[in-house]
Write a structure and sequence with these properties.
The chain is built from three helices and no strands. The chain is mainly α. Helix 1 runs parallel beside helix 3 and helix 2 runs antiparallel to helix 3. The protein is flat, with a radius of gyration of 16 Å. It starts with 14 loop residues before the first helix and ends in a 6-residue tail after the last helix. The model has no long low-confidence stretch (mean pLDDT 91).
């Protein structure tokens, strides 16, 4: 089995780069909370989840809405990865390896 070497790097972003990173982190947090809220509501009503395919399909529509058009500033892969991570967490809770 191959061993992986863990390396750490320290970043020194400029002010504008730090602002962009903050936007991406904030958008990721907002997407996680938004999709989690949808899942909680759907689970209470139907005992079902909104999985990654459905979450990713909602992203373009969210970017078109005036109140969330700031999501256009963030690369789509960032938001899709956050949906994927939430999907993994939901599937683990469904399999009872961790709680919902």
């Amino acid at each position: 089995m191959p061993q992986f070497i863990r390396q750490q790097y320290r970043l020194y972003p400029t002010k504008s780069q730090a602002q962009i990173l903050d936007q991406w982190i904030g958008a990721s947090r907002w997407i996680w909370n938004y999709m989690l809220s949808q899942n909680i509501t759907k689970y209470k009503e139907e005992q079902k989840f909104v999985f990654v395919y459905e979450m990713n399909n909602q992203l373009p529509e969210l970017k078109k809405q005036p109140e969330t058009e700031w999501l256009k500033l963030v690369p789509s892969q960032t938001l899709q990865q956050k949906c994927q991570t939430l999907d993994t967490a939901l599937k683990r809770s469904f399999k009872k390896t961790s709680g919902f």
